[in-house]
Amino acid sequence: MTLEQLMFYGLGAVGIGSGLLVVTRRNPVMSALSLVLNFFCLAGLYLTLNAQFIAVIQIIVYAGAIMVLFLFVIMLLNLRDERALSDRLSARKIIGAGLAFGLLLQVLYILMSAADGFPQKDEALAVSTGTVEVIGVQLFTTFLFPFEITSLLLTAAIVGAVLLAKKKLD
Amino acid sequence: MVESVLQNLTYFVPETALVVTFCAVLLADVIFKGRPRIPWTIGLLGLIVAGVTAFQQTGLNRPVFDLMIVVDPFAVFFKVIVAATAILIYLMSLWSDEVKASARRMGEYAALLVSATLGMFLMAGATNLLMIVLALELTGLSSYVLSGYTKEASDSSEASLKYILFGAVSTGIMLYGISLLYGLTGATDLIGIRLALEGQAMTHTPMLLISSIMILAGFGYKISAVPFHFWTPDVYEGAPITVTAFLSVASKAAGFALMIRFLVSTATPSLGVDVMAVVQTFEWPKLIAIMSVLTMTLGNIVAIWQNNLKRLLAYSSIAHAGTMLMAVTVFSQNGVAAVLIYFVVYLFMNLGAFYLVMLVAGATGSEDIDSYKGLGHRAPLVGVSLVIFLISLTGLPPTAGFIGKLYVFSALLDAQWIWLAIVGALNSVISLYYYVRVIRNMYLRDPDSAPAPVVLTGAQTVLLMVFLVPTLVLGVYFAPLVDWAHASVALFGIR
C-alpha cells in the first residue's frame, strides 16, 4: 500500500466516522465540531488529488468561517430542548432521510455508469489546474468579468444586511 | 488584456452606468446625511442614462467579455423594459406613504433599486451559467431587502424572510442542476453546452433530465410559475406596493428573458440544425404547457376569493405569467415575440393598476375591495382609469391587453395547440369575474360611511397618463411594437 492509498483510507475512515458523529450526537455543539473534523478530512482528500486551492478554501471558508458562525448561532440559541425537538419533527426526518437516500442513489448511479473504468489520475493535468497560481491567473483573465460582478453582489448584500439589521433609526 | 477589456466596456455602457450610479448613490447617502433627496435624484438620473444607452444598443449583436454575456436585440428589448419599469417605479415611490415612512433610508432604497436593475440587465444578456447564477443572485439579494424595506411593519419582515428562504432553496436546487449539467457537458456557456449535447446525443439522458428540471425550477421560481409560486402572494402582499409592482413586472421580465434564452439556445431545434436528442426523448413543450395551465388556473381561481386588492393583483400576476408561459410553449418565433409584446403591454397596465391602488390606499388607508365602494363617483378620473387598466388586464378590446392576448393565442393556434388555447380563453373568462367585481364595487355600490376623498395632484395625474395613454394607444396602434418584438427574436433563427 502506497502512502497515498494509506492517506486516502485513513482520511476516508475518519471522514465517515465524523460524519456519523454529526448526525448521532445529541449535543449540537458536538455535532458541529464533528462536522469541522469532517471538513478537515475532506480537505486532506482534496490535497491527495493535488487540488491545493480547494483544500485551502475548504479549511478557510467551511471549517473556519462557516462553522464558527454555526457554533456561534448554536450557542446563542442555547438549544436545551433538542430531545423534544427530535421527537416531534418525524415528518421532516423522513423527508430528510429520503433526500439523503436519493443522493446516495445518485452517487451510486454515477459510480455504476462509470464502472467500465474511471479516468486515470493525470498528475500533470491536476498540477496544472489545482494550484492557487493557476486559479488566480484564470480568475483575473477569463473570469475577470464574473469576478467583478461578484464584488457588486457582495456590496449589495452588505448594504442589504446593514439595512435589515439596523435598529429603527427614524 | 487591458485593451480587450476596454473594448468590451464600450458595449457595456448601460451596465457601467448602473454600477457607477449604485456606488454614487451609496456615497451620496453617507455624505448628504439627512437629505435623502440628493441620492434619490442621482439614482433617477443613473437609471435614465442606463435606459437611454440600453435603447441605443438596438441592432447590436455581439458577445462581450469572453462569451459571459451578449449584447443582442433580445437582451436590449428586455433591458429597455426593465429600465422603463425601474424609472416608473422610482417616480411612483415619490408618493408612496410606505417609502416615505422610512425616509431616512431612502438612499438605500434607491441604491438597491439600482442594483436590482443591474442584476436584471445582466440576466437579460447572460449566456454563461456562471453569469446566470450571479445575475440571479444580484437581483434576488436586492429584491429580498427591498421587500423588507418597511421592516417596522411585521408583514413586510415576514415577506422578506419568506422570500429569502424560498430564494435560497430555489438557488440551491438550480445550482445543483447547473453543476450536473456542467459535469455532463464540460461547458458553462450555452453554446458550448448545446454543441456538447449535440455531440453526445442520448448518453446520460436521465441525468440530463434531472439537471434540466432542476434548472427549470430555478427559473420557475423567478417567474412564480406553479408549483414554485408559494412565496408570491405573501411577498407581494407584505412588500411595499412599489416594490411589489417592480417585482411583478421587471423581475418577471428578466426571469422570462433568461428562461427563453436558456431553452432556445440549448434545447430548441433551429433552422439548419437537426432536432436534438433531448427534445425527442423529453417533451419540453408539453411540460411547459402543463406548467402554464396550472399557473394560469391556480392564479385565476384563487384570485376570485381575495378581498385585498393588492393580493388580488398578486394572484392575477401569477395568472399573467401563466399566459406568457403558454406562448413560450410554442417554441416558435411567433411565440417568443408574443411574450415580448405581452410584456410591454403588461408593464403599462399592471404598473398602472398598482399605482392607483397605491394612491387610493394613501387616501383611504385601505387596500380592501370594500373600500372601493362608490369610488367611481367620488373620484371620476381614478375610477375610469382603474376600469381601463382592469379591462386591459382581462384582455378585452379596445385596450392594449387585448393585443397582448391576441398575439399569444394566434401563436398557439398557428402551432396547433388548440386545447391550450381553449384553456387560456376559459381562464380569461374567469379573470373577467374578479376584475369586474372591483368595477362593480366602484360604480354600483354605495360606501357604508363617508369615505375619504381621493384627490390627485398635477404631477400624479401626469404619471397616471404615462400609464393610461399607452394602455389605450397600444390597443389600436401596435404595429411598431410588433415589428420591434419580431426584430428582437429574429436572431434565434427558430421557426
Can you describe what's shown?
The complex is a heterodimer of chains A (170) and B (495). By secondary structure, chain A is an all-alpha fold. Chain A folds into 2 domains: 120 residues, Four Helix Bundle (Hemerythrin (Met), subunit A), CATH 1.20.120; 40 residues. Helices cover 82% and strands 0% of the residues of chain A. The longest helix of chain A has 26 residues. The radius of gyration of chain A is 21 Å and the shape is globular. Chain B has 495 residues and is mostly helical. Chain B has a domain of 213 residues. In chain B, helix 4 packs parallel to helix 16 and helix 18 packs antiparallel against helix 20. About 2% of the residues of chain B have low confidence. Chains A and B meet through helix 8 of A and helix 2, helix 6 and helix 7 of B.
Features:
heterodimer, A: 170 residues, mainly alpha, Four Helix Bundle (Hemerythrin (Met), subunit A), 2 domains, globular, B: 495 residues, two-stranded antiparallel sheet, 22 helices
Please specify the SSE layout and strand pairing.
The complex is a heterodimer of chains A (170) and B (495).
Chain A: H1 3-24, H2 28-48, H3 52-77, H4 82-88, H5 90-113, H6 123-130, H7 132-140, H8 144-165
Helix pairs in contact in A: 1-2, 2-3
Chain B: H1 2-9, H2 13-31, H3 37-56, E1 62-64, E2 69-71, H4 73-92, H5 97-101, H6 106-125, H7 129-147, H8 154-185, H9 190-199, H10 205-222, H11 231-238, H12 241-267, H13 277-281, H14 284-304, H15 309-329, H16 333-364, H17 375-378, H18 380-394, H19 400-414, H20 418-444, H21 458-473, H22 479-489
Antiparallel strand pairs in B: 1-2
